[in-house]
Amino acid sequence: MALDELKSALPDYAKDLKLNLGSVIGNSPLPQQQLWGTVLACALASRSPIVLRELAPQARENLSPEAYTAAKAAAAVMQMNNVFYRTRHLLSDPEYGTLRAGLRMNVIGNPGVEKVDFELWSFAVSAINGCGQCLDSHEQVVRKAGLDREAVQEAFKIAAVIQAVGATLDAEQVLQD
């Protein structure tokens, strides 16, 4: 029902988003845990209260408690990593790349779910945050773990649609106030 609420909340000019939202969630070839972990991590990364409020309960219904927590952890750690590594990459001084990061990222080594799932969720959050270095790193890990390009693309399609839905609904809320 939450998915229908989001679709019905979208304005008429965003009909394509309605169709894509139903498609990327309702017709996804990803296994349930990968799908709903990606949805939850992307809802968190979108920073849209509307999207998060509607999709988090449905994600909770479709994920084990461990997977629900791991998807939230992926979103949290990647928010930090994406800013750090994107900035380091964008700086023209390559010496920053030789310095120790010094950031705690223990959850990546022990996420509480299959590593490939956590890495896919981290990849999707990195797509929203636009960190090329993190995208490359997580894409390589999931591909080595056996995911094909179609599964990887499915994750960034979900990220793109959820981000667009959140931005549109948040903007509409401001315009209506």
TrEMBL record:
The keyword Oxidoreductase applies. InterPro entries: AhpD, AhpD-like, AhpD_core, CMD-like. Disulfide bonds join C131-C134. Residues 94-176 form the Carboxymuconolactone decarboxylase-like domain. One of its GO terms (molecular function) is disulfide oxidoreductase activity. Coiled coil: none annotated. It catalyses: N(6)-[(R)-dihydrolipoyl]-L-lysyl-[lipoyl-carrier protein] + a hydroperoxide = N(6)-[(R)-lipoyl]-L-lysyl-[lipoyl-carrier protein] + an alcohol + H2O. One of its GO terms (biological process) is response to oxidative stress. Pfam families: CMD. Its EC number is 1.11.1.28. Keywords: Antioxidant, Disulfide bond, Oxidoreductase, Peroxidase, Redox-active center. The active site is at C131, C134. Antioxidant protein with alkyl hydroperoxidase activity. Required for the reduction of the AhpC active site cysteine residues and for the regeneration of the AhpC enzyme activity. HAMAP family: AhpD. Homotrimer. Belongs to the AhpD family. PANTHER family: ALKYL HYDROPEROXIDE REDUCTASE AHPD (PTHR33930:SF7). This is Alkyl hydroperoxide reductase AhpD. It comes from Streptomyces smaragdinus.
